[in-house]
């Protein structure tokens, strides 16, 4: 067990994180298909960000020591539209994708950390994601507190709808999450 943990750490320590826009889009799509299956386009998260482009400044790729693409993270401009029709801009984090054979080796954590470190602390937009509250809460401060009145354009597990915000008091209590088309 200790030897496998050491080799996993060594693999993720040798990762190189680069801007995702430096990677051929077809390679990213192939990675996403392998990590999430080709049916991923039917997921609710895809409907939330439909029609918008990912944010290059917050989206990254992980390369292993042989410079093979092993993971990626994309962030998207979305908004929570409150019952009065006002759009509250946010950043949707994800998908965080890692090749199945290399999951649990630190690549996803390195990608998340790189993306979260690039958010401008002077005027950060709230970040929203669908994920495991225990994991994303422990490392990056995401929580499902305050999202109970939020809705998505498709089925979702409300426990897994997470937000990270410097001042949660500014977040609407109710609303529909969708693409921010400005």
Automatic annotation (TrEMBL):
Species this protein is from: Novosphingobium pentaromativorans US6-1
InterPro entries: Acyl_CoA_acyltransferase, GNAT_dom
GO molecular function: acyltransferase activity, transferring groups other than amino-acyl groups
Pfam families referenced in this protein's UniProt entry, alphabetically: Acetyltransf_1
Domain N-acetyltransferase residue range list: 37-114
Keywords (A to Z) from UniProt: Transferase
Name of the protein described by the UniProt record: Acetyltransferase-like protein
């Amino acid at each position: 067990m200790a030897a496998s943990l050491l080799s996993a750490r060594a693999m993720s320590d040798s990762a190189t994180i680069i801007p995702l826009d430096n990677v051929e889009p077809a390679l990213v799509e192939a990675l996403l298909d392998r990590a999430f299956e080709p049916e991923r386009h039917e997921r609710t998260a895809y409907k939330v960000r439909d029609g918008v482009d990912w944010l290059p400044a917050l989206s990254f790729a992980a390369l292993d020591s042989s410079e093979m693409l092993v993971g990626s993270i994309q962030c998207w401009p979305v908004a929570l539209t409150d019952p009065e029709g006002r759009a509250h801009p946010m950043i949707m984090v994800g998908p965080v994708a890692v090749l199945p054979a290399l999951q649990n080796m630190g690549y996803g954590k390195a990608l998340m950390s790189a993306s979260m470190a690039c958010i401008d602390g002077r005027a950060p937009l709230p970040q929203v994601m669908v994920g495991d509250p225990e994991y994303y809460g422990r490392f990056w401060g995401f929580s499902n507190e305050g999202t109970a009145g939020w809705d998505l354009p498709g089925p979702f597990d409300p426990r897994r709808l997470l937000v990270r915000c410097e001042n949660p008091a500014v977040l609407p209590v109710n609303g529909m999450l969708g693409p921010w088309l400005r």
